[in-house]
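Project standup — Tuesday

K.O.: blocked on the structure for the chain from last sprint. Re-posting the sequence here as requested.
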Amino acid sequence: MYQLPYDLLIWIPLLPLFGAIINGMFGRGMDRRMVQVIACGSVLGSFLIAIQVFRDLLMIVPMKRRFAHDVFTWVGVADLSINFKLMIDPLSIVMVLVITGVGFLIHLYSTEYMDHDKGGWKYFCYLNLFIFFMLILVMGASFPVMFVGWEG
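H.V.: unblocked you, prediction finished:
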């Protein structure tokens, strides 16, 4: 498996997570348009990074088209070691592009749909969190990591 020379994979799910955290913690006091910009911008940023990873995947020999990134050791007890590892292969990059691309369009549509709602910051927080967990589900390199995405 090819290791990325840069830590780009982690930013794909982290951007929507940061958007959810910012909107969840500070969204009530922020302007409605700022909440929408943060929510939409975080998913758009993930989509643009996914496009770059897709381009990098195309530059590799077809039999070695798999990127992996060890984020941290999640569980380390005696002989058991479970790493929080993200992986991208041709199938998962297509799913990541669908999640972030369609997710961005849903966010964009929701800016007008939720424009009248006073609790729109909660909606965008949950929507960004949903995108984050879907990306973890698709990019997880082991069953425990995928389970976190599934349960999210």
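K.O.: great, moving the ticket to review. The first strand starts at residue 2 and ends at 3. The beta strands are 2-3, 67-77, 80-88.
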